[in-house]
Amino acid sequence: MKISYISTTIIFLRSISVTSAFTTTFQDYRRTSSSSVLYESTHEICVLGGGFGGLNTALTLSSLPFPEEKKPTITLVDNKERFVFLPLLYELCVGDASLDEVAPTFESLLDGTGIKFEQASVAGIDADQQNIYLENKEKLKYDSLVVATGASVNLEFIKGAEKYALPFYTLDDCLELKKRLTFLDALIATSTSKEELNVVIVGGGYSGVELALNMKERLGSYENLNVTIVHRGNEILEYATDFNRNTGVRRLEDNGVKTLTGVSVVEVLELESESQNDFSELKGRCKIVVENGSSKEQDILNADLLLWTAGSMSTNVQKGILNSKLPRDASGRLVTDSYLKVKDYDNIFALGDCARVKKVPFGATAAVAMQQAPCAAWNVYSQVMLNDEDIKEGEKENLQPIPFSYLNLGEMMTLGGDDATISSMGVVEVNGIAASVLRRIIYAVRMPTLQQGLTAAISSSSKRFESVLSSSSKKSGGKSKKIITWK
Ligand SMILES: Cc1cc2nc3c(=O)[nH]c(=O)nc-3n(C[C@H](O)[C@H](O)[C@H](O)COP(=O)(O)OP(=O)(O)OC[C@H]3O[C@@H](n4cnc5c(N)ncnc54)[C@H](O)[C@@H]3O)c2cc1C
């Protein structure tokens, strides 16, 4: 009963989740388009990167009404086998979500869509010859190109960080952390001396706070656990809404997570041999030299586990998608116009974390990338169709490109276990278990396909509903007593 209710909700919410500008343009065109146009050759569309931006662009493109005789070939290139729903990595790490829910294979997602999938690492783009260079594979030819290769954490700038820190940004990072936590469970079980276990997290943005609270929840049964966030900014969660920041900071305090603000990591070093204890076999144990931004005083923190969430960069620079010709900003993001078209290149579009659409960039969020995807898809479609000489003048009006505009629908954070906080458009503010349930439902709606949305909903719902039901009969303990506020 509960599951079928959720499934119906997912289908309903998915059906209204497309941006209105896109829907209007798309429907207008469907009404007037002619299917009698004859085409001579197949147009090749390549989408690089199968994350929130790229995958949704490819899926939207495959559903647009290209005339049957000249359906383009759509190829999605990603170096991984699986799409990763990054906001649920925390749950995967602590065993609160399954691999297939968080990271379905591209093969399963693209089944029946007609989109070709190429698992390969993009090494370079030759924009003059319209070729994509792939590592250890034949180059790909394109007529239209969409770049959505995202961002990654860069540890090169801090001495020792690459050797000792574990970034938390990819599925591989998450699975490695999961492995270390399982190993840690075994060490804890046999620990006799009950020494301090120090987890240090660098970065006090959304990811750092979410990870800290999930580590607290996951390892909380160990009495001598210290979780510390080191944050360069002056305030934890400085870009969050007031409601989410206040809830997040309160939860950190309630759970005894220590926060060091205005403090930077200067260097990461090996731990001396006298620091040997029950946790000595853990990989990556280290000491961290931190510096206070204003006083310049330095201090040392010992870490049994050093997790890194700060400082992501566009993969264009870091992973070497080389093409000196494509215009980029200082952070390596491809510079586009408001139609997501790369400056000076009519047939190249970019979106998501690897793109910069305007002077003050949009936040590097899944929400932005997902809203950009239908816009990028439509604009590729528009360009292909408008360049076709068989399109009649009267049809062109409905095929015009659309500029991207972002609608901020709000933000959500996991606070560990069955706790979360949601703040949306200044109207809805929710925290506690209700927010945790709602967050998983909203994420199920945002899954790239309906089938994946249902898998996610079913996988997460039963457990959460049980939690809600059991918690309603108990006092809420350390968690917020305020469940929902409508402003
Ligand atoms: C742990 C974590 C939690 C997050 N939580 C939230 C949240 O709660 N809400 C929110 O809105 N945002 C969240 N974000 C941010 C959000 O996930 C990103 O902004 C979003 O994924 C950007 O989408 P994208 O398509 O630009 O890039 P991505 O989703 O990162 O996709 C890029 C794709 O390109 C592929 N790729 C990269 N380089 C190459 C190459 N050389 N060759 C081939 N393929 C390549 C990658 O494998 C990847 O599949 C979170 C991020 C992380 C890491």
Automatic annotation (TrEMBL):
Keywords: FAD, Flavoprotein, Oxidoreductase, Signal. It comes from the Eukaryota. Its cofactor is FAD. Residues 1-21 form the signal peptide. GO terms for biological process: aerobic electron transport chain. Residues 44-372 form the FAD/NAD(P)-binding domain. It holds the Pfam family Pyr_redox_2. One of its GO terms (molecular function) is NAD(P)H dehydrogenase (quinone) activity. This is FAD/NAD(P)-binding domain-containing protein. It comes from Chaetoceros tenuissimus. The lineage of its organism: Eukaryota, Sar, Stramenopiles, Ochrophyta, Bacillariophyta.
